[in-house]
User: Fold these one by one.
Assistant:
Number 1:
Amino acid sequence: MIETNSVQFTTKTFFATLLLVYLKKRWWLLIWFLILSIALLFKEQRDSIEKFLVLIGFVYPIIVVFQYWRFANSKDNKVFFLERKYEITDDKIIGNLSDGTSNEILIIHLTKAIKLKKCFLLYLSKNQFLYFPKDSFKSESDKNWFEQKIVSQIK
């Protein structure tokens, strides 16, 4: 069993993490919109549909960023910003929140793991995940154990 140091999401970190996950999945869509918009922008004669596509191509990335910013700063997400510590065993993760509550999650219920540069995200469902910053582990061996025993067994 390992324990983590206290972990707390800030709105800035939450927003950056959500946006990074989106960009990892859909970077090609944003690039495609921008390339199409730039190509149509330099066309000499544009009809109204092409003008609309140029507008959408430049506005769509801004809308995506705004939606994630708004979600990250929503008052409905205050549970994400509670300080927590995790106790991790071979078969379960126990999260102890700063408000005195705790939850126990079996590893077999985790559906997906994403390894980012600074953290691990373990998904319970499409929109629910556990956040483990790499610096929250008390030692390098704890982090390696977590990555080998927990993250690697989630498919």
Note: The longest helix spans residues 11-41.
Number 2:
Amino acid sequence: MGTEAGAGTATTRQNQPSSSSNSNASLAAAKVFANPLPSFRDVTSAEKPALFLAKLRACSAVFDFGGDPTAFAREKEAKRQALLELVDYVNGGPGRFTEASGADVIAMVSANLFRALPPRRGGGGAGGGAAIAGSSSSSTDGGGSDSSNSNSSFVVSPSYSLADPEEEEPTLEPAWPHLQIVYELLLRYVVSPDTDARLARRHVDQAFVVRLLELFDSEDPRERDYLKTILHRVYGKFMSHRPFIRRSINHVFYRFVFETERHSGIAELLEILGSIINGFALPLKEEHKAFLARALMPLHKPKCVGLYHQQLAYCVTQFVEKDARLAAPVLSALLRYWPATNSQKEVLFLGEVEELLELTREEEFAAVAAPLFSRVARCLTSPHFQVAERALFLWNNEYVVTLVAGAREAVLPRVFGALASNAAGHWNGAVAGLSANVRRLFQEMDPALFDRCAAAWVQEEGSRGECEARRARQWEAVERAAEAERRRKEALVGGGNGGGRRR
């Protein structure tokens, strides 16, 4: 289950290797490390390149970590030491990664990393990022190599974000003592100035990128954090892969939204995309706008959106910040995915609306003011006080107030009734007070419009009262008719055949 598999094993949660094949792999690996290769300190400088290749090939042998943890303990530790020596060697200076060694590096990395993921123990959702203390994979800012880090950097912080805070802790990868060092070596290879992207494309090809993306579904947040950094660095260095990486991430999102709603790495993929979107040139290409409409906005639909909403909102606002004309279609799309019964999602959506409105110009706002504040009015009357309170906080934003003032003819008629009802007697005192404040704001903004809306609301309330009274009278008539019919049937049954049953 938690096994380092061979390079040819597809990364999937199905068709996992049998216990017998795992045992055979462990036996083979144990034979390789029964007599470890000499250390780099024990050979001459001329012999080190050949020893580097020999250690890479030896470390391609993998152990099964899913069974008895004490099995082959000495050989597993020998492999871990060999992996640490490989990292130390490539950190020793330039010229360690050569064209000849590239194939062996990627073969060893593939043999260790590309494996069958353990089955998810119930529950869906998307995981958050991880905090790795001292790890070089702690950011995705596309900076230079972190070759100054020593082996002591492989210290994992005891605190990391869970895949879903409402469920059990995620399944941690038992092979992590080896996998972490392999990820570190792969990161060194990708960021090394010795790695020529044009030559390395033969090894870091599209198939390799796809298999890296598949590993993002790992429940172990430490692994996803390394993957996030490595894929971002691959995107920055291998320019020819950039369109393919974006399309492949799109496909992950499509499957998550429209098929499974189960994936552990959506937050990390969105973090990568946030950096990518930040670097888009202006004017935006049509393919980038299509990505926003077809991939990013539908990510608001899954019920677990709260687990990656911060990263998603950042990506969306990046688009609007680059092209203000996208504000209206983005807000319209957000209204299409607005939750009907999920209060937590409504609070998140209202926060995103405020962020988007801060980037919206008056002409774009005028196009969506009516439908947007019709939705806000329904939030104001929500029985969940946090939803109503978050909607009222929109008027704490000075720029939003400026936008609303410019479109008050469309906004005030739609929110006046909700504000009046809340101010008159909302069960939550804070909501009632905030509603009264917003009412006063509108009254000072345009007294004439306020009076017209007040008169219309009074008339509407009167009509609603008459309608409810008429409905009550109709129900009373129905009940009287039903009671009369019941008595008539009882009289017929009781009067026939001396009170006997009629045939």
Note: DSSP finds 20 helices and no strands in the chain.
